[in-house]
Specification:
Length: 203
């Protein structure tokens, strides 16, 4: 029998990962409400029953896809522990802007959802915000920031989301200029002593 006609046998984990890849590709081109479950399965090249074997329903498949993309975003933007605060911030934001530029539709799904008012989607976005906030606080060396600093940092995370989402629609600003804007917005607002490199640490 020709190899091309042999159906691949994948583990449960590998098959689910394959479906998530297809989901990312599909939802990068189509809004959640544009496709019925049957149309979604057809575009993924699988049967409806196979899709339901791995995901409860269309919404569950969509949430899993967005969750996977959110994790990839966090993985792609993890700061370099060997760099000082500003260098690590700029490097992370460069990767963040590149990620959004390459995946604008999925980034919009992460930030704005796509299934109406949905608690799980809201919790997912809040988890991404919390990780981002914790990373900044960790690099600043502030485990328990005072109220004014906490509000400032949380507000900057929200600003970064909204500003980058707006940028992704038109790309009328070069990526490096977008990074400069995001870096400058934070560093210009922080007390200078917080962003000075520690002795022996690279700036």
């Amino acid at each position: 029998m020709p190899a091309a006609n042999v159906r691949r046998r994948l583990s449960v984990e590998d098959r689910r990962a394959e479906l998530l890849e297809l989901g990312i590709e599909i939802f990068s081109r189509h809004a959640y409400d544009e496709l019925s479950t049957d149309a979604l399965a057809s575009r993924a090249g699988v049967s409806r029953s196979l899709l339901y074997h791995y995901f409860r329903d269309k919404r569950d498949f969509y949430l899993a896809t967005v969750r996977e993309m959110a994790q990839r975003l966090l993985d792609a933007t993890a700061p370099d522990p060997e760099q000082g605060f500003e260098a690590a911030l700029r490097s992370s934001l460069e990767r963040f802007v590149n990620f959004v530029g390459e995946n604008p539709a999925m980034y919009q799904a992460i930030v704005r959802g796509g299934v109406g008012s949905d608690r799980e989607m809201e919790d997912l976005l809040e988890d991404v915000r919390r990780v981002s906030l914790d990373r900044v606080q960790d690099r600043l060396g502030v485990a328990s920031p005072p109220p004014a600093l906490r509000i400032l940092l949380y507000g900057w995370v929200g600003f970064t989301e909204t500003a980058t989402l707006e940028w992704s629609k038109s790309r009328d600003l070069p990526p490096e200029a977008m990074v400069d804007l995001l870096v400058g917005t934070l560093t210009s607002s922080l007390p200078p002593h917080l962003i000075q490199p520690a002795p022996g640490q690279r700036p």
